[in-house]
Amino acid sequence: MTYFFETYGCQMNTAESASLEQLLIARGWTKAADAQVADMAVINTCSVRATAENRIFGRLGWYSGLKAVRGREPGAKYKSLELAAGYVQDGAKPLTLVVTGCMAERLLSSLQKDYPCIDYVVGTFAKQHFGDVIAAVQEHRHADALDDAPGYEFAPLSYEPGAFSSYVPIMHGCNNFCTYCIVPYVRGREVSRPVSEIVAELDTLSSYGVREITLLGQNVNSYRDGNVDFAELLKIIADHLAAVKSPIGWVRFMSSHPKDLSDGVITVIAENSVLCHHIHLPVQHGSNRVLKAMNRRYDRESYLALVEKIRKAIPDVSLTTDIMLGFPGETEEDFAEAVSILQTVRYENAFMYYYNPREGTPAAAMDGQIPLELKKDRLQRIIDMQLKITSEEMQKRVGSTVKVLVESVSRDSSAEVLGKTEQDERVVFSGVESLIGRFATVRITGLNGQTFKGVLAE
Question: What is the tens place of the pLDDT at every residue in 375-388?
Fold first, then answer.
């Protein structure tokens, strides 16, 4: 039997799709070329922004048409629905549609009623029962109702077959309740994964020849297993990888809440070469008034002091961030503070977006909602400025020699390969396909947009 995944949203969703895929592979399933010919399609959804949910609603309409075609008797003639579905064949077989992820959890009681094309809605806390769904499909029956009682369970492996980079979830959920964020409501409270399980997954990934891992959590800095906090976990991982002579050469992590990034974390990164000198540190805004309204629990001054501490301990660190414009009540003065914090920190890159109300969060009911056109205008102004900063900061790296993990053949030339640096920068250089999945030493010779040009230095 065959499966097909559509995954939307964050890296955690990508990791969870990979863990569900492992269950299917273990039961003898194979990956289909597309949903149109699969026995099961799984949509792993995102609920962070309304635009993400609207896109998924559109896909559910598409699947309704596809299932109508797929449900016909073999030999039926298709004329109109397949134009929307892109699906034409002489015989049809049933398609099982599963919707999971944060949107599934948020709309747990209504989604299947509104979209009868869905066979199973698997909420955040019911993923451990996905094996029951697989068994039911294989046995041509319908599984009983899945238990969604809060009690998140970590999958033993979140590996995509053949990958040399892999995500490793270490904690789940969030206790912060930023006023704009739906995550605590759909992911639940923070739960940390036992150290022993994390190390066991690293050993499995090492046996597969994985070169890079990214530790995942809604707030990795809150990790705690007994007396082991995040800093100690990083040290345990670094020491273990060295002791077993693992092929894993880089360890990254995300996402990181500024209020919880400790001196210990900074020190362990500075002292262990396997820990990448790249930190994604979401600031969200530069105005203390807006930060307070967001319930971020730090102010501009403490954030900038943290940045200074990081750069003093790790001089070659690259910092990236998230920043939101158009939060309710944001004035031009507040916006100027957001602009100025980007100018002060000079991030190498930033994910910039405007506030999008999420039903059920405090910010959605706040006074002073900003008109969409003004939000778009402010966002464009800050994008233009950050692109200039990114170019200037990257230009400083031209002429340096860096370690690169080669990821693919360049789309522009089959004689070039594309990789990334420890600081998560893109590099393209002349090289053969056999370099993919290996580390190479590259001298940076130029910059094209946000991609470095380079030459092999070996």
Answer: 999 999 999 999 99
